[in-house]
Amino acid sequence: xxxxxxxxxxxxxxxxxxxxxxxxxxxxxxxxxxxxxxxxxxxxxxxxxxxxxxxxxxxxxxxxxxxxxxxxxxxxxxxxxxxxxxxxxxxxxxxxxxxxxxxxxxxxxxxxxxxxxxxxxxxxxxxxxxxxxxxxxxxxxxxxxxxxxxxxxxxxxxxxxxxxxxxxxxxxxxxxxxxxxxxxxxxxxxxxxxxxxxxxxxxxxxxxxxxxxxxxxxxxxxxxxxxxxxxxxxxxxxxxxx
Length: 242
Ligand code: 1GP
Known about the structure:
Blueprint: H1 6-12, E1 16-21, H2 28-40, E2 45-48, H3 58-68, E3 73-75, E4 89-95, H4 101-118, E5 121-129, H5 137-142, H6 152-164, E6 169-173, H7 184-193, E7 198-201, H8 207-215, E8 220-223, H9 225-229, H10 231-241
Parallel strand pairs: 1-2, 1-8, 2-3, 3-4, 4-5, 5-6, 6-7, 7-8
Helix pairs in contact: 2-3, 6-7
The chain binds SN-glycerol-1-phosphate.
SN-glycerol-1-phosphate binds near residues 178, 223 and 225.
């Protein structure tokens, strides 16, 4: 077992792919096989979370993933109800691009004692939503507007705020199932202006898109829907990235 903090483990594994497994889209029964699939194909970490969380079996799902994972398992919560002691760490997200105080700080206040009780490693993340061409679940649930995709300087400003707040990652998010991924130009400009590692996700379904985002400077890219929709295409992306 690796005793280094998860944040250090992740950073020494950069650049790489993180898998997002959504407990609302993958059954607890399938959690074992999907975890093996993503680990065997070289992801550097597994994120667990959902915009809404319909399943009542969140904790069971987290345990099933943790029991079968050979990489860090990190909560990526859509709200204060998505906390489990079975994970290794939690992305303590603040939705910086929004102006809804509930997702800037309110949900975090509700969850904080439970997070401490669970003994999770807490990794503060500045979460920035970028317009993606369709109305995503994260926009609806958070009741916030994304940053216009033609205004990279606004994304840069928010990312710098995250850095100055002391956040350990900046996460540029187009939203799960996004029509368009975050523009490479936005990734490039944010990367040029902040020193904290950059995570980019949402709408990444092909090798070419993933490659563009990596080349633009992402330290981690997040793949979600493609893993559920087409394990074959997921494996192909991972194979070509090696
Ligand atoms: C969502 O970035 C992730 O936070 C994953 O998005 O499901 O579109 O891959 P996809």
